[in-house]
Amino acid sequence: MSTKDIIKNSFINQIAASDVSATSIIMVMLITAVLALYIFCVYRIMCRRAFYSKTFAVTLVIVSLVTALIILAIQSSVVISLGMVGALSIVRFRTAIKDPLDIAFIFWSISVGIICGAHLYNVAVIGSIFVTIIMVAIQMVPGLKPALLLVINAKGDTSLKDIESLIQSETTYYKVKSRSINASELDIIAEIRTKDEQDFIQKLSKVEGINNATLMLHDGEVIC
After folding, report:
1. What element of type H or E holds 174?
2. Rounded to whole angstroms, how far apart are CA atoms 155 and 215?
């Protein structure tokens, strides 16, 4: 028998009946479901958004289950695995991920599905517990205080030097983002960090020529 015939027969055998039993499938899906619900609960607790997205949390569970099914199908046949690769390669997801932490949960769900589909239940359970411990530990580490955006509106003849001197003396960090000056108005937007926000605003309000000064939370990166 030639090498070509051997390869051909092996593929024909792969197309034959699957070795995955119904009991094995049920066991994989049950364990995957339990771990997926565990991820669901962890996401609910760790979610940092003002508005909790239940749809995304449910998606995490479905992703784990579907991934486990795909791995079971791939294990049953080489031909099916090749066809699955081709089919999945044309799938495009265009939903924007708003929180970087969501990406970690997506990968976690996919990994649980893959590992459970490969019948490595111990790896899935121990790995999920370890990921949770690390995630909780990192969340407990105190973060740096975020920078603030200072918006100043003043009269056009107000001394810019006096304003910036006061800001520099009362802040630990100061960086001008925008200056806008015309005959009637002076607008300044700066990124600052100060120890006493209320006292800082009161001192700014006493500067002659300043109409109003506003401090806003900065949603960008924290300054190190």
Report:
1. strand 173-181
2. 19
